[in-house]
Amino acid sequence: xxxxxxxxxxxxxxxxxxxxxxxxxxxxxxxxxxxxxxxxxxxxxxxxxxxxxxxxxxxxxxxxxxxxxxxxxxxxxxxxxxxxxxxxxxxxxxxxxxxxxxxxxxxxxxxxxxxxxxxxxxxxxxxxxxxxxx
Length: 134
Fold this sequence. Notes:
The chain has one helix at 2-30; strands at residues 37-39, 43-45, 51-58, 70-92, 106-130. It is built from one helix and five strands, in the order αβββββ.
């Protein structure tokens, strides 16, 4: 009886530790846990006849930005979370050191997919965080 309970507790502990490892991996894979990064909303395109277009994505400053600090644009990349017979690429970036508090920082993205395909993407932006000189 004791061995059966011990085996059950041990297997539950193993499952729990595995879940914790997996959840930790997912959180770090998302890559948005730093104070100098932000992301756009997720854009989804899956028309049955296919499609292509150019889209303008407005960037926002990081949510975890401390009070009294400002964020200046450094770089951006497109993350395609799901894609089938499609592609997404950045056509133009905002100027270096663009400040979202005083101007609009926008990324222009081109996407396309075939009739049986789809694209799901979002834009990840990195910012230079400064406490003075904004």
